[in-house]
């Protein structure tokens, strides 16, 4: 089997029969590189400056339901949870136990005032908003309608409920 080079021109070789994401740059292998530089979603703005459309006014009973590997988990308003395979993350870690491309401590998700925030905690295979890898150790707001993915192939469903 011959190795191929990442289409994103980072120089990383990969085996197309076993790899779906570049280990160096996070590019989804087997897809053409975008000629324009990839730009991650904007970071959460300074207090009082929104980066996404204002959500409807949350009620105290607003909660977030995330779906990870087919299992639903509830995140209360003003709660932060860890996403990864570390056993400290409890049932989320159990849901991710077979997702070996997800780091043990992959990302932190925070739900506050009806808004969703994600921070990649220096994971090996990245955290993606709308298919764009976000830099590590910076918090980003996930706007309504945007998608969240851990590594190459672990989508995280996001649904707000009252």
Automatic annotation (TrEMBL):
Region named Disordered: 31-62
PROSITE patterns in alphabetical order: FHA_DOMAIN
InterPro entries tied to this protein: FHA_dom, SMAD_FHA_dom_sf
Pro residues composition bias: residue spans: 38-58
Keywords assigned: Phosphoprotein
One Pfam family here: FHA
Keyword Protein biosynthesis tagged: no
Domain called FHA: residue spans: 81-134
Annotated protein name in UniProt: FHA domain-containing protein
């Amino acid at each position: 089997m011959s190795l191929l080079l990442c289409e994103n021109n980072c120089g990383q070789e990969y085996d197309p029969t076993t790899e779906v994401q570049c280990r160096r740059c996070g590019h989804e292998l087997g897809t053409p590189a975008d000629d324009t530089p990839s730009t991650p979603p904007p970071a959460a703005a300074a207090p009082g400056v929104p980066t996404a459309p204002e959500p409807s006014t949350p009620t105290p009973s607003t909660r977030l339901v995330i779906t990870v590997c087919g299992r639903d988990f509830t995140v209360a308003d003003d709660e932060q949870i860890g996403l990864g395979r570390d056993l400290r993350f409890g049932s989320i870690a159990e849901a991710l136990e077979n997702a070996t491309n997800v780091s043990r401590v992959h990302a932190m998700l925070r739900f506050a005032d009806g808004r969703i925030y994600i921070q990649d905690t220096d994971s090996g295979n990245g955290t993606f908003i709308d298919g764009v890898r976000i830099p590590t150790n910076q918090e980003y707001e996930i706007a309504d309608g945007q998608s969240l993915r851990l590594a190459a192939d672990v989508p995280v469903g996001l649904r707000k409920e009252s």
